[in-house]
Amino acid sequence: MNYESNTLVKGVCQAAWKSAAVGLASTRGYRGDSPADTRGDLIEIPLPPWEERLGEPTDIKRRRLLYESRKRGMLENCILLSLFAKRYLNSMSEKQLMQYDRLINEPSNDWDIYYWATEAQPTPDVYQGEVMDMLKEFTKNRNQERRLDAPSLEYLEKEVK
Fold first, then answer.
1. C-beta neighbour count of 102 within 10 angstroms
2. What are residue 87's phi and psi, to 5 degrees?
3. pLDDT by residue (tens digit) across 102-154?
4. pTM
5. How far apart are the C-alpha atoms of 99 and 126, rounded to whole Å?
């Protein structure tokens, strides 16, 4: 095969691939021209209602909330809430601990918590309070701290000694 015919074959293949790719993109709606999603295929999984753990010792509550702050359904909240917990959890009052417990455990969607904390969506009145204000301020990261990962747990060993 000579140079001219090889170039012709490449050109034909590229043209065919390009038109196929454009056709694929337009049929899948990547350009914003997809029909409105009726969410008919959405499956709602009922979650048990959040209940305050009355009588739970404060030190156990703090440890549980620390764990629950670190183990989230999405990495963004894992990082955000674990760093927030590291900074504030040990100094929170009982009332603040209850607010934080409700905030991170009652909503069924972690994205809601993220959107409220970043103020991308308004916070429902039931979650608005002192702890949410602290979380919103913490999320702004005014000191431009490096927040790329959840904190190591070494700081816990130092507090126990």
1. 17
2. -75, -40
3. 999 888 788 899 999 999 999 999 999 999 999 999 998 777 777 676 777 66
4. 0.65
5. 10
Q: How far apart are CA 5 and CA 10, in angstroms?
A: 9
Taking each helix axis as running N to C, give the angle between helix 110-117 and helix 130-140, from 0 to 180 degrees, rounded to the nearest 10. Answer: 70
Cα dihedral sign for 50, 138, 96, 67?
positive
Residue 39 in contact with residue 32, Cβ under 8 Å?
Answer: no
3-class state of residue 2 by DSSP: coil
No. of helices (H) and no. of strands (E), the chain: 7, 0
Burial zone of 91 (CB within 10 Å; 0-12 exposed, 13-18 middle, 19+ buried)? exposed
Work out the number of other CB atoms within 10 angstroms of the CB of residue 129.
17
Q: What does each C-alpha distance from 138 to 26, 34, 52, 95, 131 come to in angstroms?
A: 42, 38, 25, 19, 10
Q: Are 127 and 109 in contact (CB under 8 A)?
A: no
